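Operator note (shift B, R.M.): manual run for Aminotransferase class I/classII large domain-containing protein requested after the automated queue skipped it. Running by hand, logging everything below so the morning shift can see what happened. Input copied straight from the record, untouched. If output looks odd, do not overwrite the archive copy; leave it for review.
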Amino acid sequence: MQSRGVALREAIISSPALPFSEGLKPKPHICKLNKPWVRTIMASAVSTANSEQVAVKAQEPPPLQVSRRLEKFKTTIFTQMSILAVKHGAVNLGQGFPNFDGPEFVKEAAIKAIREGKNQYARGYGVPELNSAVAARFKKDTGLTVDPEKEVTVTSGCTEAIAATMLGLINPGDEVIIFSPFYDSYQATLSMSDAKIKTVTLRPPDFAVPEKELREVFSENTRAILINTPHNPTGKMFSQKELELIASLCIENDALAFTDEVYDKLAFEAEHISMASLPGMYERTVTMNSLGKTFSLTGWKIGWAIAPPHLSWGVRQAHSYLTFSTSTPMQWASVAALQAPDSYYEELLKDYRAKKNILVDGLKTVGFKVYDSPGTYFVVVDHTPFGFDNDIAFCEHLIEKVGVVAIPTSVFYVDPNEGKNLVRFTFAKDEDTLKQAIERMKANLKR
Ligand SMILES: Cc1ncc(COP(=O)(O)O)c(C=O)c1O
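Run finished. Output pasted below as returned.
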């Protein structure tokens, strides 16, 4: 309330380059807030401001404005931490992107497509060859045959697939279940869809689905449940039993399943299972994925949503008015990527396994309690052996005094207290970077 009050006061007395009396006229969006505290602040602005103050304020930029749907969201934690990493020269094991490049054969395919003039708008729901390549990979991975023309929609990364799915299939007031901790875009896109968010918390040590709580939260008002497997930030992979439980509740309550599977190829201990492959689930599932993680090309933002025609319709309607289509040459290059032989994925997993060992062994030596992470390129640890009150305080110390960036996980919970003991590290970095981070922690992090 305090900062909101201050911001509003600034808003009221900062209308630029107007005579004093004009400058005090609140902006239309402020008028709509007919709250007592707004009126008090306005009155105090009138009584205390003088022309000198107005002259100073007039040079300041106008106050930040954001719709109510998004006002509770801050700058994403990844942006904040990456800025701090640069400021303190810290080794960044925070934001989940590789510090090495994607494969040459995919980059060459993009360059070729650009040279061949594949540079104008693509078909809205995808370059036909890419829709077919996505369908072929899905068939190989799940055994399911889908129609590339009717059931695959190419999007600008999985992030847009998530947004298009929410905006295209959720009505205001619909209940949607998500598991905490969750990838941050879920809450924001659900808020943009005016959905009612219901959360179920996955807790350490194994982040298992709490069956009783899940059963309690499901009801006939549930429109959908959103699952992320392998799971960011914990690295958890939903087991067959957990997926079967969720599937039975979806069927019982006639709910949809939205599944984010961007880390499907980073499964270290067990085969990834797609929710869509469970009996009775394809008809009610939107499977979302992207190229970025698997091909170390996170900046390309090529993703897709696979769903039966009746659900693809909603996704495509939203996609049509969000971005309409996505980068044409990158779509062509993605066709080459998805045709990679199995050896590409085997090599990828081998490389990541080596990186993971360096990070996990190192973190244990430093003194963290490290939780098992069967999938993704993240590891979650308990930082409490080092005596900090919460994850934010610990991460600030880690950046400023140790020179390493991690992500505080409390930002991935509706109730930040639930994540206050946990921080996330990524091993999507070259081995020297990982070793350097471990050395810094060994030298400077004291219990
Ligand atoms: C769980 C999850 N889903 C989606 C995304 C975003 O994927 P994309 O870069 O393809 O938009 C990320 C990126 O970190 C992620 O961790």
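Quick read of the result: The longest strand covers residues 222-228. Residues 1-54 have pLDDT under 50 and may be disordered.
Leaving this for review. - R.M.
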